[in-house]
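Sequence design from tokenized structure. All designs in this work follow the same two-part layout: the structure record, then the generated sequence. An example of the structure record is given first.
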């Protein structure tokens, strides 16, 4: 029996590759998205900042005049929180996805002002939630996401996805077919569900947990 082929739409770290190989998987990994940092300025009014991705944090940190500020921060994902705190930023709330974070803001911080630092391909969850609850907010685009088209043959038995944009990028030149999809969170899974029933969602938005779930699925 040949080893299952697993494709990750994000470059894996060495220990992640090792885990999949220990499960007797063959692995292909590449970055389905290319990030381009954009010039931006920070408005003075919002007193709370919101980050929904590590790419937003990296783009923010690349602008010294912005990262010199010390506004309290709300973010999505433990890895995003860790990156912020490692660089001296104060995180007061972390959620597993943006809908959870928006719900928290609507319930407990409705009279505050928020700045969402994001990319050009952001989902509408934050803006829609703020508008629905009539909460003051602004958004700045700190980076652009470009889709990297790549034809994959043969068809993988497993696909690892980390964002809806990553799903879109892969589908530019490929189809899901019979592949089993592993998604880092519910937001990414929402982009996959119309295409297949063969789906596993990581228990938390963490790449190591996603790889672990993949290895468990294919281990013989």
């Amino acid at each position: 029996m040949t080893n299952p082929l697993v494709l990750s739409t994000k470059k894996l770290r060495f220990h992640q590759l090792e885990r999949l190989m220990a499960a007797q998987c063959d692995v292909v990994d590449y970055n389905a998205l290319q990030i381009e940092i954009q010039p931006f300025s920070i408005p003075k009014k919002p007193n709370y900042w919101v980050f929904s991705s590590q790419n937003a944090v990296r783009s923010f940190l690349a602008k010294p005049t912005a990262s010199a500020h010390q506004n309290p921060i709300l973010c999505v994902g433990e890895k995003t929180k860790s990156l912020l705190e490692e660089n001296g930023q104060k995180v007061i709330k972390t959620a597993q996805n943006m809908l959870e974070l928006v719900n928290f803001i609507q319930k407990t911080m409705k009279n505050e002002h928020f700045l969402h630092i994001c990319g050009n391909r952001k989902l509408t969850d934050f803006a829609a939630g703020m508008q629905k609850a009539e909460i003051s907010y602004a958004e700045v685009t700190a980076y652009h996401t470009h889709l990297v088209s790549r034809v994959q043959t043969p068809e993988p038995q497993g696909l690892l996805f980390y964002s809806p944009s990553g799903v879109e990028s892969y589908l530019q030149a490929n189809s899901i077919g019979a592949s089993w999809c592993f998604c880092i969170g519910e937001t990414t899974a929402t982009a996959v569900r119309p295409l297949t029933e063969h789906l596993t969602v990581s228990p938390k938005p963490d790449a190591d947990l996603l790889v672990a779930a993949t290895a468990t699925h294919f281990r013989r």
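The chain has a mean pLDDT of 95. We note this feature because it recurs in several other targets discussed in the main text.
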